[in-house]
Q: What sequence folds into this?
């Protein structure tokens, strides 16, 4: 290995001890030196002193390690990590440049609000919604009263009209015994009376129409729109902002996955001062903000990892987010490890029993500000249990542990059909449509009620949990639950965590000879073929000066098959 | 009154109203020819009323109401 500090070759004082460790089991330490620090004397110290004088300690300094075969690992010195300054040398920590460590440190601090302020253009989606409250009875009472009053008035008006018309007919109908017609004045008088009565009836009708219109607007405010965003759009633009590109076959396969942030908007009309139809603007910004469960790029990626049993890799400036076994099926790597205990020429391994669990609970959030999340609770959670198949002593069964998959979103309800109050009122408005149609034209309230099906339904203007939706053209399709429900999350993504499907031998610190190229390849995909089995590399410590590596890996081993089963208990 | 009763009643009103309007039109048509010119205003005003209902024009209906209130058929 050769070391370069900002392009100048240098020799760290502790060079012979330096190896490189890749740890794939935990996010912050994917690639690091096997020593805590590097010690830089002489010209390296001068370069650092100059840098600190010019830029201060808040900007890292490029540090490049090259290996045989032209392999380059890009690092940077992070002066914020316990740098120690001495008279003739400096001790610093280095981190992978544009590697996973740096990406997540930046992503955790990158808010979508900041991106927007910096001019990043996010493609937002208009999400139609209706507020369907749980006070239907309160709404029904005034409707019933209005219905009674209007019906009564119409009956009276038509009755009077009938009388007037009857009088007119009687007046103009020829009578055999009496000279043909009554006086002209009487006929005109009766015609006037009939028309006057028609006008009165018409006035009642117009009043009915106008009252119905006002009632309709209050009971059925028009569909309004929140702004939301696709998950892939948010993550992709966030990565782009940090200088990375983003790939995810997982998110490509669930392209409708969208986030509806909580309504939080400053300088807007108050819902207490205006009726709903006058509040014709989005109450959400479209991207998650500080009040959402995923205000930063890092927290959103973590949430998606949790929800979909996924992992994120950052390799050469590309962020990949995939279900955790994705790389297993596409690895080109192959390595030949030695026996665990070289001295005794013996094998040694442990079992990954820490990954076994008794309960597996996948759940979304419920939102007490949006009672639809409680009213339609069915897709919100799913619970599974690992049960022994044929225990001899049940008190000695040691399966334990809760695997809590806490998805930090609430689901959004879809308006599947008309509820009872809408059906109730729809009949009334159908009648209004018919009566107003007597004079030609008329209203069409009933069809507007019918058009409300399929949109997002919430129980109040403001809700408190960030929502996850599956949107096609702004609306959730009838089968949106097939993409989002907790049971579907298990069936598609989490079932691989059953210990019967996830049982492995774990071998630790196995010495093996790998080339520098193998080492670099394993950074991209930490699965490899070992003796015909695809194993997952958990950790590699590569010692350049000693020309070998110590690897820890998981190898398939069916120790749980036939002994336990997973049952769905909720 | 429940919703079905109300619906039936309003349906009934609608039928009655339609019949009455047709009857009124027919009555006007059957009035002797020598009287017709004297009540030609009736058909014209009926058209005005229908237009006003379609457009929800209460002002127009109020105008017509005032006009009819001022008519003295005895003259």
A:
């Amino acid at each position: 290995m050769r070391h370069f500090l900002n392009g100048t070759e240098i020799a760290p004082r502790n060079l012979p001890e330096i190896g490189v460790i890749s740890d794939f089991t935990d996010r912050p330490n994917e690639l690091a030196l096997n020593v805590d620090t590097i010690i830089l004397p002489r010209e390296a110290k001068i370069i650092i002193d100059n840098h600190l004088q010019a830029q201060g300690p808040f900007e890292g300094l490029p540090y490049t390690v090259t290996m045989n075969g032209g392999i380059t690992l890009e690092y940077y010195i992070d002066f914020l990590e316990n740098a120690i300054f001495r008279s003739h040398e400096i001790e610093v920590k280095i981190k992978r440049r544009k590697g996973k460590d740096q990406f997540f440190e930046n992503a955790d601090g990158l808010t979508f609000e900041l991106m927007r302020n910096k001019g990043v253009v996010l493609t937002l989606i208009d999400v139609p919604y209706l507020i369907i409250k749980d006070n239907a009875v309160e709404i029904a009472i005034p409707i019933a009263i209005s219905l009674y009053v209007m019906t009564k008035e119409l009956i009276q008006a038509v009755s009077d009209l009938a009388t007037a018309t009857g009088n007119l007919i009687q007046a103009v109908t020829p009578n055999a015994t009496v000279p043909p017609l009554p006086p002209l004045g009487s006929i005109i008088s009766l015609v006037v009376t009939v028309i006057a009565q028609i006008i009165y009836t018409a006035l009642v009708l117009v009043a009915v129409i106008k009252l119905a219109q006002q009632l309709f607007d209050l009971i059925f405010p028009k569909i309004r729109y929140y702004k939301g965003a696709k998950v892939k759009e948010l993550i992709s633009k966030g990565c782009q902002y940090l200088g990375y590109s983003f790939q995810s076959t997982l998110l490509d396969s669930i392209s409708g996955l969208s986030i509806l942030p909580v309504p939080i908007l400053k300088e807007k009309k108050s819902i207490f001062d205006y009726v709903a139809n006058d509040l014709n603007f989005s109450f959400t910004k479209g991207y998650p903000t500080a009040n959402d469960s995923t205000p930063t790029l890092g927290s959103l990626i973590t949430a998606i990892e949790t929800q979909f049993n996924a992992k994120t890799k950052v390799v050469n400036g590309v962020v990949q987010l995939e279900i955790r076994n994705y790389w297993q099926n596409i690895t080109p790597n192959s390595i030949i490890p030695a026996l665990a205990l070289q001295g005794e020429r013996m094998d040694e391994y442990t079992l990954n029993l820490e990954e076994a669990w008794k309960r597996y609970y996948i759940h979304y959030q419920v939102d007490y500000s949006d009672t639809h999340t409680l009213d339609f609770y069915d897709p919100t959670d799913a619970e599974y249990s690992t049960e022994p198949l044929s225990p001899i002593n049940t008190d000695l069964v040691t399966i334990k542990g809760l695997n809590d998959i806490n998805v930090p979103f609430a689901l959004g309800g879809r308006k599947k059909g008309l509820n009872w109050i809408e059906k109730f009122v729809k009949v009334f408005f159908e009648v209004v449509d018919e009566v107003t149609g007597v004079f030609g034209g008329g209203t069409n309230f009933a069809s507007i009620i019918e058009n409300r099906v399929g949109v997002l339904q919430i129980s109040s203007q403001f809700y408190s949990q960030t929502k996850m939706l599956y949107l096609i053209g702004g609306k959730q399709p009838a089968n949106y639950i097939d993409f989002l429900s907790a049971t579907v999350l298990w069936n598609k993504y989490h079932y691989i965590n059953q210990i019967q499907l996830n049982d492995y031998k774990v071998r630790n610190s196995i010495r093996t000879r790998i080339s520098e190229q193998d080492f670099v390849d394993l950074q991209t995909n930490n699965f490899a073929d070992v003796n015909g089995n695809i194993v997952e590399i958990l950790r590699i410590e590569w010692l350049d000066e000693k020309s070998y590596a110590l690897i820890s890996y998981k190898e398939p081993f069916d120790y749980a098959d036939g002994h336990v089963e997973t049952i769905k208990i909720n | 009154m429940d919703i079905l009763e109300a619906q039936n009643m309003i349906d009934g009103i609608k039928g009655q109203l339609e019949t009455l309007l047709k009857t009124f039109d027919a009555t006007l048509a059957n009035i002797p020819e020598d009287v017709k010119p004297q009540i030609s205003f009736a058909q014209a005003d009926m058209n005005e009323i229908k237009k006003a209902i379609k457009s929800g024009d209460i002002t127009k209906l109020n105008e017509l109401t005032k006009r009819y209130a001022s008519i003295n058929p005895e003259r």
Observations:
- The interface with chain A takes residues 1, 3-4, 6-7, 9-11, 13-14, 16-18, 20-21, 23-24, 27-28, 30-32, 35, 38-39, 42, 45-46, 49-50, 52-54, 56-58, 61-62, 64-65, 68-69, 71, 73-74 of chain B (CB under 8 Å).
